[in-house]
Specification:
This protein has six helices and two strands, in the order αααββααα. By secondary structure, the chain is mostly helical. α2 (45-61) packs across α3 (69-92) and α3 runs antiparallel to α4 (108-125). It is elongated. The chain starts with 10 loop residues before the first helix and ends with a helix.
Length: 166
């Protein structure tokens, strides 16, 4: 039997969101070094191309680690399968006539639906959908106080005071 309820968010994402639930954060959660895993050799050409495209995006987002190897490979291969099924359906059409003469929908529609679901779920895991991106905010570095701010004075105000004194 699997775990109940939604999958917990990683602590890093909770921090980026500002810990909206105000619950204690898991300080013992393992942290991994950001890096690009090696592209698996078993991926087909379309999946390898997608791997290259996504690793650039995920590296720029600083969310990709070596541990994401399998999930990213699954995403790329599901995308490739989706594209292959879509291309095949574009050639054959949505409907076909069975041997008994009945018009039926293409079995490719089921493959496309399944692969679309897999791709969308994995895109959410990596924060690559518009709605999953809105839940994460970047942390802005704290501004250091300007030590010379007291020296920044309005010269015109002093000139006006000098004129009134004389």
């Amino acid at each position: 039997m699997g775990f109940r309820g939604p999958a917990p968010k990683p602590t890093a994402i909770k921090r980026l969101e500002g810990n909206p639930g105000k619950r204690k954060l898991n300080e013992a959660e393992p942290t991994l070094i950001v890096g690009v895993p090696e592209c698996p050799d078993y991926l087909d050409d379309v999946a390898k191309k997608e791997w290259g495209r996504l690793t650039e995006i995920l590296t720029a987002m600083k969310v990709l680690t070596e541990a994401d190897y399998i999930a990213l490979a699954n995403l790329c291969q599901a995308y490739s399968t989706l594209m292959n099924a879509q291309r095949q359906m574009n050639k054959t059409g949505i409907l076909y006539k069975s041997k008994s003469g009945y018009i039926q929908q293409s079995p490719l529609l089921g493959i496309i639906h399944t692969q679309t679901t897999i791709v969308n779920n994995l895109l959410r895991e990596f924060g690559l959908t518009p709605s999953s991106r809105t839940r994460v905010a970047t942390i802005q570095p704290e501004k250091k106080p300007n030590r010379f701010a007291a020296l920044d004075v309005d010269c015109e105000a002093y000139a006006a005071e000098d004129l009134q004194v004389n």
